[in-house]
Write a structure and sequence with these properties.
mainly beta, 5-stranded antiparallel beta sheet, 10 strands, elongated
């Protein structure tokens, strides 16, 4: 009986679908304001809303990618993203508009450029999952 119970347990436990402990979210971004010195990017939606510590941000300026930076868990704390060819870092700040501690609809990312970008410069903002997958990208031209 013990052996039969163990075999039954192993067979049944393999049928139970256990959800992942840290599911990869789907995040939609909308550009709300852009200029030669920065941009405001609205989180239009996030499902499921991730903790900011699971996210990294990066930039592509022209055809040059920056070095991704981890998003801090606290809102309003800027992170630096260095992009080769620019002497100073760009900063990205997450604003937790709802104050709930997760990245979700209504929150905002604010990009500040160290110097005004030249007219015609292509800019892309990338939101990256902790395993390196790009979750969302939004681009514009100055």
């Amino acid at each position: 009986p013990v052996a039969a119970s163990a075999i039954l347990y192993i067979m049944v436990s393999g049928l139970i679908d256990v959800p992942p402990q840290n599911p990869v979210p789907t995040i939609m971004l909308t550009l709300t304001n852009e200029s030669a010195t920065g941009a405001a990017i609205l989180v239009a939606g996030a499902q499921p809303p991730p903790a900011p510590g699971n996210l990294r941000v990066n930039l592509e300026i022209g055809t040059t990618f920056g070095v991704a930076a981890s998003l801090p868990s606290m809102t309003g704390v800027p992170v630096s993203v260095s992009v080769p060819g620019y002497p100073s870092s760009f900063t990205v700040t997450w604003l937790d508009v709802g104050g709930d501690g997760v990245v979700n609809g209504g929150d905002q990312f604010v990009l500040s450029c160290p110097t005004a970008l030249s007219s015609g410069t292509a800019v892309s903002f990338l939101l990256i999952w902790n395993d390196g997958r790009t979750l969302s990208t939004i681009g514009w031209t100055v």
